[in-house]
Rhodanese-like domain-containing protein (Luteibacter anthropi), 148 residues
Amino acid sequence: MNDVLHKLPEFASNHLALVALFVAILIALIVGEASRLFRKWKSLTPAALTQLINRDTPLIIDLSASADFEKAHIPGAKNVAMSQFDPETQKDLSKAKELPVVLIDKDGRSVGKAANRLIKAGFTRVFVLEGGTYAWQNAQLPVAKGKK
């Protein structure tokens, strides 16, 4: 073990690109995990969202494109285009500051910014569905079709 530690500086000087790549990946992982730990909204799995729906009355907002929403969405979800999402001016949202609000999109990748906007606007119970509508469908949970 001691021999390996003595050879580490030599390895690092011979393979600067590998060491730099390793350090960059390590920093990215640490920053990503730290931001996940300190965010004020929570991620839900499809099973956890089902429990929330059964135990409470969450406002479910689907930020998917309207064409994707019409193909499949969680029953009871309201479709709001991401470009028109404004927690300060939307009537449905201003009444729901104390309700749990669940944000969904097609794949769960773009709802984090919307969740942060809700937190900034004073919402206290903000959730995001991990994996979006795709995860919901993969869990074989019911979906609705059409505009409502």
Summary: Residues 42-139 form a domain with the Oxidized Rhodanese; domain 1 fold (CATH 3.40.250.10). The first strand starts at residue 42 and ends at 44. The chain has two domains: 1-38, 42-139.
